[in-house]
Amino acid sequence: MSRNPSGGRPTEFLFGQNEILLLRRASQLKREKGALFYYCLGPSMSPTLRAGDYLAIFPYGDQPLRRGDVVLFRPPGEERLIAHRLVAVVSTGLKARGDNNDRQDPWPLLPENILGRVVQVERRGRVHSLRGGSAGELYGRVIRCLTMSRLALFRVFRPAYRWASRTGWLRRVLPWRLRTRVVAIRRPNGIELQLVAGRFVLGHRPAGSQQWQIKRPLKPFLDLARLP
Questions:
Q1: Which domains does the chain show, CATH number per domain?
Q2: Is 0.90 surpassed by the pTM of this model?
Q3: Does the structure show a pLDDT above 70 at 15?
Q4: 3-class DSSP state for residue 88?
Q5: Among residues 35, 90, 176, 179, which is most buried (max CB within 10 A)?
C-alpha cells in the first residue's frame, strides 16, 4: 500500500465523485442554506488553513463584510477560487492576503467577487470554527509576524542550509533516518505526489510539476535524488 522512496510504486488514492459525496454526507461541518463546501489545496493560508482541509463557506446575506474575515472569492476576470483574509479597505475596494503571504493580493475586490466567509474547517475528522472580524484580524497579524520572523531567521542560516541540503552531510552523520513513503493523490488536474512520514506530510510534488516542494527545514535530512 505504501513505499519507501528507495523503490517500488507509490500508493494511489482515488477520490471519485461518489467518494467525495459520501465524505460530504459524513462530514460534521455545520449546514446552512446556501453554504458552499470546498477543499483547501494551497499553502498561502498556512497554518490557518492547510492543504486537504475541508471548508464550510457561508454567504454573507445582509451581514457586513469585515476586516479579519477569511473569505472565498473569485479574482476579477478569473474563474479560480481563493480563500484569503480581508486585511484592508481601499478606494477601489477590499484587499485580501493569505496568512502565509508577505504581501497583499494584487486585486481590489468588490462585494460581488466574494462568495462568502469561511466559518468552519474540518481537519483529520475534527471541526473548529474560524476567527473573523477584529479577533481574526489580530490572529492574522500574529501569524504574519511569526512567519516573517521565521523567514528572517532562515535567511541568516540559508548558506549553511543549502550546503547541508546539497552535500547530504546531515544524513550521513545522523544515527537514524526518517522512514518515509510516497503516496499519490488524484487531483482534478492530475496526480499529486506527497512524501509522508507517519501521519505528517513532509512535502509534495504538485500535479503537472517535476519539482518537489519540501517543508523547511527538512531538506538536509532527505535524499531527494531518490524521489520519483
A1: 1-16+168-228 (no CATH), 31-142 (2.10.109.10)
A2: no
A3: no
A4: strand
A5: 35
